[in-house]
Write a structure and sequence with these properties.
422 residues; mainly alpha; Growth Hormone, Chain: A; 74% helix
């Protein structure tokens, strides 16, 4: 069997996208495992570690909307190359940092580069013509990246017990550098423009620009605010706990050894990996999607709420199963992306997904800082769990008001020189 040029080119494209997203997810979640070692090296408290975690998440969150705008206006590979270059630089700085200041700076650079990746990659990996299965498609792409999140749990725990965390981070930087070079060795082509049905795909903004965007978003103000607030607390609570505090909690409050804590974290990560395509598939087949949101989100609220009861784990099977289920419930965040793909014009999808990503990761950044202080206070991790449960409950209930599908856009003013949505 011989491989032709197109097959090699396609393989290199998928290698670049998949491996790069693997490393993005690895850096986003690795602090939960290497955090105790970093705390020992730099003398950090739990709240200081939370600050280090938030310094990755703030730029990661703030880049979601700009990356969405760029993905709608220029070829996504340009944005992706910038992303991977910054990740490479950030990883090298992280591995060689010698002070708390340089540690914080390296995490900022890593967050900046990582935050530029997902939205333009999603634009390359999915298309409007597959809208009937868009939830499952986006969930599958996230699951590919979640392999990096999985690697940042139990496998990373085993590596950290044998090698320096600096060596591991430096190796990821070298891998990113190699992927950056690979991106120049393959042909990415252009985007398709207008379909036979007259539908715009991957075009830039219509000529009316900002006025057009405001006209469309005015139709969806309620939905975007509700889904954004829901993403803020659902994604923010889950990622801040899983990527910063989980191992610390299991070791300090539950008395787990690092290797066992890594196994439990792995279960949560695998649940999240499975949950994204599973919930996406369920929401594709059982409409309206908001019913699926309510079921899975309320299950997540229940999980947060029962943690302060301190049930005895009696081994590793019960916590592993519990954290696995928790990861699955959090996979319902993918429904917000599916809603954007179905309801909005294609050239606004990148921006809208960027807004939802901004909400989720801004929540993670803010909660990493806030909950780190709560964990050090009188309530400890009990306060962390209760805050997450109450906040998610009150942000989930308004999802009942979300309209779907097929909101009438005939009144949107497209402006001179642009098409009119119907």
């Amino acid at each position: 069997m011989t491989l032709n040029k197109d097959s090699i080119n396609r393989g290199l494209r998928y290698l670049f996208l998949g491996a790069s997203y693997f490393l993005v997810c690895f850096h986003r979640n690795s602090l939960a495992v290497i955090g105790p070692r970093i705390s020992a090296d730099f003398g950090l408290t739990t709240s200081s570690l939370g600050v280090v975690g938030s310094l990755f998440m703030y730029p990661y969150a703030l880049m979601q909307v700009p990356s969405g705008l760029l993905a709608d206006r220029v070829h996504p590979i340009t944005v992706l190359r910038a992303s991977v270059a910054l990740v490479t630089l950030g990883a090298v700085l992280f591995a060689t940092c010698s002070s708390y200041t340089s540690l914080c700076l390296s995490r900022l650079v890593l967050g900046l580069g990582s935050g530029l990746f997902y939205v333009p990659a999603a634009k390359l990996m999915s298309g409007r013509d597959a809208s009937s299965s868009v939830g499952a498609m986006l969930g599958l792409f996230i699951s590919v990246g979640n392999a990096g999140t999985i690697f940042a749990s139990a496998p990373l725990t085993l590596l950290v017990m044998r090698w320096s965390w600096r060596t591991i981070v430096l190796l990821t930087g070298l891998l990113s550098g190699g992927l950056f070079l690979i991106s120049f060795g393959t042909h990415w082509g252009g985007f398709p423009k207008r379909t036979a049905a007259g539908q715009l795909r991957f075009d830039g903004m219509p000529a009316s620009g900002l006025h057009y965007v405001i006209s469309v978003y005015r139709k969806f103000t309620r939905e975007i605010v509700i889904l954004g607030l829901w993403s803020f607390f659902l994604v923010g609570a889950e990622i801040s706990f899983r990527s910063v505090f989980a191992v610390d909690y299991l070791m300090k409050a539950r008395g787990f050894a690092m290797d066992k804590a890594g196994v439990v974290l792995l279960a949560m990560t695998m649940g999240s990996s499975i949950g994204s395509p599973l919930v996406g598939w369920i929401s594709d087949r059982f409409r309206p999607r908001k019913r699926v949101v309510l079921v899975f989100s309320l299950a997540c609220v229940f999980w947060w709420a029962i943690q302060p009861l301190g049930f005895p784990y009696l081994g590793i099977i019960i916590p592993t199963t519990s954290y696995f289920i928790m990861g699955i419930t959090c996979g319902c965040f993918i429904i917000a992306f599916a809603w954007a793909k179905e309801e909005l014009p294609e050239h606004l999808v990148g921006l809208t997904i960027g807004i939802f990503n901004l909400a989720g990761f801004l929540g993670s950044a803010m909660l990493s800082h806030i909950l780190g202080n709560v964990a050090e206070g009188k309530l400890g991790y009990t306060g962390v769990f209760l805050i997450n449960a109450v906040a998610l409950l009150f942000s989930t209930l308004p999802v009942i008001l979300v309209r779907e599908p097929g909101t009438d856009l005939s009144g949107v003013e497209a402006g001179k020189g642009t098409h009119r949505l119907t």
